[in-house]
Design a protein that fits this description.
The structure holds two protein chains of two kinds. Chain A is built from 15 helices and two strands. Chain A is an all-alpha fold. In chain A, strands 1-2 form a two-stranded antiparallel sheet. In chain A, helix 11 runs parallel beside helix 14 (317-325). By secondary structure, chain B is an alpha/beta fold. Chain B folds into two domains: 1-80 and 164-247, Rossmann fold (3-Layer(aba) Sandwich); 91-162, no CATH class. In chain B, a hairpin with a 2-residue loop joins strand 9 (215-220) and strand 10. In chain B, helix 4 (120-132) packs across helix 5. Chain B is globular, with a radius of gyration of 18 Å. The chains are: A mainly alpha, B alpha/beta.
Chain lengths: 350, 247
């Protein structure tokens, strides 16, 4: 794409100038980058590999809880802390706060990635719609289980250590989330340039053939999901701290909102492409916020209409549509001699 | 001369339908072996059993002396035994070169190899093989947009890219126009002589199989009916009866 650097420039400028020019919308911008992470990580499996997971939100929630447990558990008795549901004011020194946050985020990422290996071992036996439902089941079950676990506050949730100093940490978490989105993008850009992308594309196009050719399909699938889980774990850790209070159903494992949004954003932008999920996430978030503000009461209807239009008339998404329209801009060659037929072929083979 | 594949006493049934009963056969190294038989005689079932698509009920299948009947498809493929499909199967949303690149042998692929790029000589080899089957000018096209015959050639090139020791071809000429068939027979023979790949071919087209194979097996009703040189098979009364439906 010739306007690649323009795109990078615009994204960076928007990421840096956006919150400076409109400080009131800083949390909205943070959520926007979270959405970008959501759709980029969903697309690894759903777009590039053809495995439509409805349960990726599981890793977001796990990351959130693991980070919280590490942050609190490092300095306090977790059970006693959670039992008060944050009613008792505990004071974390800035040093404790940032050490806990750093260690918690790293642990969250690792635990999420490991859990992807474990659950991959179970659900990768499922194909197509069964895989989608199976993963959804994992996410819903995780939410219910967390709600029954008193150590982490059960259904009542738990509050997280407050951000040290006078600030509420909005700008701090904005920077982290923006950095996470950029890192995820750069990592995937690197990943998709390696043979990994061809292998998972092959699995998407014909998994049985890929097996027949000796590709270690299970290895690729497991690694692909672990990568998703790794970045989702970090995003959960950051979002939990930004919110300051976590509970299982609405914040950590919101399967019907965030869990479905990640699928919709990737579809809207164009699944299986690098930029599609990003464009989809930005557009989706803007539409969502605008309808929530100006069409209150009708916002879910508006969202539903968007989904229907997207799925019925626009299945390939924005970038997919652009690729069909201007293939040469994307480095895709199309046979100019229509009816590339066997007669020509016969000539070539003779 | 050693045997690449040795099938002995293999039986396979689907519920009450006996697809293969006590089938024994050998595929000698470096040769082209044909497998013929009327529709529903169990040829593809035998193929699937050999490459590990389903477990067999009884019997033994050996590849280079190693028992493989309990291995899975990927493991057998990585040993160096590959099959192509009757309904051509390629990665239809990727271009031809990408189809070729991902078909490199995965025998010794380590964990770190997943994240590497392809060295230029691999791309060169991919393009060379595409040239070999006559698809060089189409190499950048999305493979799903190629004609059926071209997709068959691509699938064949992908198999060669994988550097197999044995290649099992399920009706390589089905659905290809007659002129192209001659080119394909020529390519198959050259794969055998130039690349040293042992071939095992299911084929309905008698002209093709008689022209191609060094020796031919004939299946009928799930049982091995006859074995011999193409000439012997052509003149075997039981084979003729099986095809014409004599009782």
């Amino acid at each position: 794409m010739m306007n690649k650097f323009t795109l990078y420039g615009l994204t960076l400028a928007f990421g840096i100038l956006g919150p400076i020019l409109f400080p009131a919308y800083m949390s909205q911008f943070t959520v926007l980058w979270l959405m970008v992470v959501f759709s980029l990580t969903w697309d690894i499996m759903g777009g590039q590999m053809g495995y439509n997971s409805l349960g990726n939100i599981f890793f977001f929630g796990i990351g959130m809880y693991v980070c919280a447990m590490v942050q609190v558990g490092l300095y306090y008795d977790l059970a006693a802390y959670a039992a008060h549901s944050g009613a008792v004011k505990v004071n974390f020194t800035p040093e404790q706060y940032f050490t806990g946050l750093a260690l918690g985020t790293i642990t969250a990422a690792i635990v999420a990635a490991l859990l992807a290996v474990v659950f991959g071992w179970i659900v990768f036996g499922l194909r197509g719609p069964y895989f989608a439902i199976g993963t959804l089941g994992v996410a819903i079950a995780a939410g219910e289980l967390m709600g029954a676990w008193d150590l982490v506050g059960g259904g009542g949730g738990m509050s997280l250590p407050g951000f040290p100093g006078d600030s509420d940490g909005t700008a701090f978490f904005y920077v982290l989330m923006f950095a996470l989105a950029i890192s995820t993008f750069l990592f995937l850009k690197w990943l998709y340039a390696s043979r990994f992308s061809l292998a998972i594309n092959a699995i998407r196009d014909d998994e049985e053939k890929a097996e027949g050719m000796g590709i270690q399909t299970k290895r690729y699938k497991t690694v692909a999901w672990s990568i998703s889980a790794f970045f989702l774990g970090i995003s959960g850790a950051l979002f939990g701290n930004m919110t300051g209070f976590i509970e299982p159903l609405e914040v950590a494992f919101p399967t019907v909102t965030f869990g479905i949004f990640m699928v919709l954003m990737a579809l809207l932008g164009g699944k299986g492409t690098l930029w599609g999920p990003i464009i989809g996430a930005i557009l989706f978030h803007v539409i969502k916020e605008v309808t929530w503000t100006y069409l209150l009461g009708w916002q879910w209807v508006a969202l539903g209409v968007l989904i229907v239009v997207n799925v019925v008339f626009f299945q390939q998404g924005i970038v997919g549509w652009m690729q069909d329209k201007w293939p040469e801009k994307f480095g895709i060659e199309v046979d100019t001699q229509l009816g590339a037929n066997d007669e020509q072929q016969t000539e070539a083979v003779k | 001369m050693t045997d690449m594949i040795e099938v002995s006493g293999v039986s396979k049934s689907y519920g009450g339908v006996v697809a293969n009963h006590d089938v024994s056969m050998k595929v000698p190294e470096g040769k082209i072996t044909g497998l013929i038989g009327p529709n529903g005689s169990g040829k593809t079932t035998l193929f699937n059993s050999i490459v590990g698509y389903h477990p067999i009920d009884s019997g033994s299948i050996k590849f280079e002396g190693q028992e493989i009947s309990d291995l899975r498809v990927q493991e057998i493929a990585r040993l160096g035994m590959l099959r192509t499909f009757q309904q051509t199967r390629i990665y239809s949303k990727m271009n031809c070169v990408q189809n070729m690149l991902i078909s490199v042998p995965h025998r010794n692929a380590s964990f770190a190899d997943m994240f590497k790029k392809y060295p230029p000589e691999v791309t060169e080899r991919a393009e060379h093989l595409l040239d070999f089957v006559g698809l060089y000018s189409k190499r950048k096209l999305i493979s799903g947009n190629l004609s059926f015959g071209q997709q068959k050639l691509l699938e064949f090139a992908m198999a060669l890219m994988n550097e197999p020791k044995v290649l099992l071809l399920d009706e390589p000429t089905a659905g290809i126009n007659p002129t192209l068939i001659n080119g394909l027979i020529d390519r198959l023979k050259r794969a055998n002589t130039e690349f040293g790949i042992t071939l095992f071919v299911i084929e309905h087209n008698m002209r093709v199989v008689m022209n191609l194979a060094d020796n031919v097996y004939c299946l009928a009703h799930g049982e091995m009916l006859a074995h011999g040189t193409p000439d012997e098979i052509q003149n075997d009364q039981s084979v003729i009866d099986a095809y014409l439906g004599a009782h």
